[in-house]
Write a structure and sequence with these properties.
6-stranded parallel β-sheet; alpha/beta
C-alpha cells in the first residue's frame, strides 16, 4: 500500500489484508542443523540463488526445493542439495526438521513459503526489505540481499547458537498466528459486507 500511495497518491478507504495459511498443516519435529529454502532459483526477485552462492561457507547442509532450469550454474557448489519441485506436503516436511529457513529476497509482496516455514518453527533469515520487515518485525534475522557472505554469516551465527536459533524459531511461530486463514477470511468478509452495504446505499440514493 505504501508503494501504491507513493506512485498514485493515497487511495481512499484502503486497507491491507494479509495472506493466511493453516498452521494445522505444519508439523513440529526436533530441529536438525540444516538450512532450507524453497522457490524458483531463476527468479531474481526471490533471489534464492544467493543461498546457493553462500552454501559452501555455511557450516551445515543446505537444501533448496523448487524449479531449477539447469544445474550447470550450480554444479560447482558442494554443500547444497537441490530437491527439485516438491509437493507442498514434502516441502513442509523439509521445513519441519530444519533449524533455519533462508529467503534473501530482493522483492517479496508477502512470501507464503516464509509463512509456512515460520509455522513449522524455523528461524527465519530474510532479505532486509521493507515488506518483510513489516510482516516479521523483530521476529527474524535480516541480511543484505546481494551479499552471500552476510547470508552465510547470519546462518552460521544461528547454527553455532542453537538456543538463539530456537528462540527465533519460537518467535516466528508465535508471530505467524497473525496470518491465519481465520483472520484472513474474517477480514475479507468484513470488507465484502461493507461493499454490499455501500452498494445498497448507492442504489437507494439513485432511486430516490
Amino acid at each position: 500500500m505504501g508503494m501504491l500511495s507513493a506512485i498514485y497518491g493515497d487511495p481512499p478507504d484502503a486497507r491491507v489484508i494479509y495472506n493466511g495459511r493453516d498452521a494445522a498443516d505444519c508439523e513440529i519435529v526436533p530441529k536438525q542443523p540444516v538450512v532450507t529454502s524453497a522457490g524458483r532459483l531463476w527468479d531474481e526477485a526471490k533471489n534464492i540463488r544467493q543461498l546457493a552462492y553462500a552454501s559452501d561457507n555455511i557450516k551445515a547442509p543446505v537444501k533448496i526445493a523448487g524449479d531449477l532450469k539447469t544445474e550447470d550454474e550450480y554444479s560447482r557448489f558442494h554443500n547444497v542439495r537441490f530437491l527439485g519441485k516438491l509437493p507442498g506436503k514434502d516441502v513442509r516436511t523439509e521445513m519441519a526438521s530444519s533449524m533455519i529457513y533462508a529467503a534473501p529476497a530482493r522483492y517479496e509482496p508477502f512470501g507464503l513459503c516464509i509463512l509456512v516455514a515460520a509455522m513449522c518453527g524455523c528461524a527465519l533469515v530474510l532479505g532486509n526489505i521493507p515488506s518483510l520487515r513489516e510482516l516479521w518485525k523483530d521476529n527474524a534475522v535480516y541480511v543484505e540481499t546481494d551479499n552471500a557472505d552476510s547470508l552465510a554469516n547470519a546462518c552460521n551465527r544461528l547454527l553455532e547458537d542453537p538456543y538463539t536459533a530456537a528462540e527465533y524459531g519460537n518467535r516466528a511461530k508465535r508471530h505467524s498466528a497473525m496470518f491465519s486463514l481465520e483472520i484472513m477470511g474474517r477480514r475479507y468478509l468484513e470488507l465484502y459486507d461493507e461493499l454490499v452495504k455501500a452498494s445498497h446505499a448507492m442504489r437507494t440514493v439513485q432511486i430516490a
